[in-house]
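Quick one: structure tokens for this chain, please?
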Amino acid sequence: MPFRLDEANEVEWHRTLRSSGEHRGESLRHLSSDRQPGVQAERVSVLLVEDEPELLDVFAAFLREQEFHVLEANNGYEALLEFDRIGADVVVTDLHMPGLDGLALLRALKRRDPFVEVIVLTGDSSVDAAIAAMRVDGAFDFLIKPLARIERLTEVLLLAAERRRQARSQAHDRMRSEQIRTIALELTGAGNAEERLTEAIAGVASTWTPTRSVRMSSMRL
């Protein structure tokens, strides 16, 4: 069922948004001070996918207040076009959307970039589907809307961005280790293998640059 803000909820959404924007609030200062060194909001690109314009506007405005780089899409197909065009560190998507739903979008995004983290938004009646999306399809987390605390979105986004950063770093380390092992095999039995291996490792370490992921330019689902 499409999410609708009733009058009471709309007042509460705008009160939360106004409070975060005017004061940055002690709650948000506390949240910022508790963050571990690593990923900061201004370094995180977020793609919001929501077919309810009212809710999309609320989330986008709040995250921009938190200094995230925010992209917006009204449906799954538009989200894929935006992802192929620019990319994103984390995608926040509604689960139930017409056409390409959140689950199909999650799978398509993971095929394009295995390191992208996806957070699913769902209603109370769809919690089981959201849990399955985490277990089977690799969603990072799910949030039930309407959110009891909109700040929870910031917390989960930063955790997701940090996991993406760590996963990419570990993948680069594995690639470097594989390159070093290949060099070691090539040097086996040729002169002073230990000395030449040490030199090779130093050479790889000094010239290593992480490879950039190549994004699909076509609309592939």
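The CA atoms of residues 95 and 124 lie 12 Å apart.
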